[in-house]
Each structure stands twice: as C-alpha cells, then as structure tokens.
Amino acid sequence: MAVTDQPSYYELLEIGPEASAQDLRQAFRRLSKRYHPDTTALPQPQAQEAFRQLQQAYLTLGDPARRRLYDAGLQAQRGAATARPSPPPRAPQPVPVRRALSGGEWFALLLLALAVVFSLVLGVGLAWARGAALFTAPSWWNTAEQTAVVLDLPSADDRPAAPPDAALQPPAAGPGALAG
Fold first, then answer.
1. Cβ distance 59 to 12 under 8 Å?
2. Burial, 12: exposed, middle or buried (Cβ in 10 Å; 0-12, 13-18, 19+)?
3. DSSP letter at 85?
4. 109 Cβ partners below 8 Å, 6+ apart?
5. What is the topology classification, in CATH, of domain 9-80?
6. pLDDT tens-digit profile of 109-123?
7. Where do the structural domains in the chain lie, given as residue ranges?
8. How far apart are CA 176 and CA 180, in angstroms?
C-alpha cells in the first residue's frame, strides 16, 4: 500500500497487527456480512468496492508470506511518515438496521405462503370429502343452559308476593315480621 491516506488492511478488518488467523477469519466474516452487495443497504457500487477491499485485505493477511511482506512495507511506510502528522481517524460507518429482502428471501416467503394455503385447502377438502362437520360448537358455549338444568333451582318468581284478595297493609315491625 503506497498511499498513506487509505486505511491499512488491519484498519479495514478492524483488527490489530497481532491478530491470529482465527481473529482474522472472524473479522472478515463479520464485515463481509455488513458489506456484501447482496445483504447491505449501501448503494451497489459502494458495496462492491468495500467488499473488494475486504477480500484483498483478507487474502493478503491470510497468507503468512504475504502478511510478512505487507507488515514490512507498512513498517517502512510508517518510518517515512513519522515527520508528518497522522490524519484524524475515520468515524466508523453505522450498521444499517433494516435492509431490503433479497430475491431468494422473497422466493422462500412465497413458497411458505403456498405451503400454508395448500395445507389448508387439503385439510378442508379431505374433511368435506369424508363428510365431517367443518365447524363444531365448543362444549363451553352451552354452559349457561347446562348449569340451570343441573341445579334445578326454583326462581324467586315461582311464589306469589301476596294473595290477590289481601288488603294492602304496611309491614309490621318486629324481629319475625318478615318471615312468613
């Protein structure tokens, strides 16, 4: 890398120079999910360029011989650039929260919807062909009628309030006046 204003491969992969091969692989997988042209919300040309840079960094740092050459070149470049002030660090780009569904995801959703509709049609068709009732009332819908039949309680309206020929009199006061 001859141009100093571009980030190093370590900065692109968001790892340090002491990172192991496994750290390198994990960083590449994580960032490739973020920048892959099929899964990112970035514009297609920008996503392709970012992903191409990630691939180049991974291929260079993944091979031990190429990594040693790259580290030596990076060391020489830093030695020559010590007189110049370093540029301010770039702010990391936020990861998009939502992205558009890819063609494969839309196809999977379509297949899922078709499978559900087919299952419903098949189930209703088989039930109709067998003569089964398509709708049966649950047993708890009839609980009010069943409770009245089981308890067989006389209602308060079964006994007349007063004989038809009784004269209207005010109730008598006293402890047993209401018992009758």
1. no
2. buried
3. P
4. 101
5. Helix Hairpins (1.10.287)
6. 999 999 999 999 999
7. 9-80, 101-130
8. 8
